[in-house]
Write a structure and sequence with these properties.
Number of helices: 1
Helix content: 10-25%
Shape: globular
Strand order of the largest sheet: 1-2-3
Length: about 70
């Protein structure tokens, strides 16, 4: 994980899944080489920050089924 100061989070364009209807959804934004994720119910809550390359590896794992429950 990488750190951004609070000022670095201003102006982020957050996205949530189209299927999110106000429930417990993950929100995602990116700024340069940083991807920020947080809880859509807690807009002022904590966020996690990752490098773009770490995020891409995570997404590839999802698509390959690495996190599927068997």
């Amino acid at each position: 994980m990488v750190q951004l100061g609070p000022a670095d989070e201003s102006g982020l364009s957050w996205r949530v899944a189209r299927a999110c209807n106000g429930g417990a959804c993950l929100r995602v934004a990116s700024k340069g080489e940083i991807v920020v994720i947080g809880d859509s119910k807690d807009l002022d809550g904590p966020v996690l920050r990752y490098t773009r390359s770490a995020w891409d590896v995570f997404i590839a794992g999802i698509k390959q089924g690495d996190f599927d429950i068997i």
